[in-house]
Specification:
single chain; about 110 residues; mainly alpha; two-stranded parallel sheet; about 50% helix; about 5% strand; globular
Length: about 110
């Protein structure tokens, strides 16, 4: 969140989940280290996202950890989700194909 998704969040405001961030972080680490997301872990992550939508005023949830795809892929949390990996790949493709320059994507 510090880099605002590598300068791509120029017209948005980023918020973080409220509550026990250490517990959410541990869930993420457990998923990342095992390569598996349990239904219980998925429920906790979906509820954290739902809270950011309902209580924090978020319009969408940005998945900013590559392993979060294990929880969200092929599952509908009931709110809009943006996978940061998709954003990164799109920017890298644009750079590689000379459709954009580094100056275009730098933090403003």
């Amino acid at each position: 969140m510090r880099t605002r998704l590598y300068g791509q969040l120029t017209r948005t405001e980023a918020i973080a989940p409220v509550g026990d961030l250490a517990a959410l972080g541990q869930i993420y680490l457990d998923i990342a280290s095992t390569g598996i997301c349990t239904n219980e872990q998925r429920t906790v992550l979906f509820e954290a996202g739902r809270s950011m939508i309902d209580d924090g005023g978020a319009e969408a949830i940005v998945l900013a950890g590559t392993d979060l795809n294990l929880a969200f892929a092929a599952h509908d949390p009931g709110y809009p989700v943006v996978d940061a990996l998709d954003v990164h790949v799109a920017v890298l493709a644009d750079l590689g194909l000379d459709r954009r320059t580094i100056a275009d994507v730098q933090q403003r």
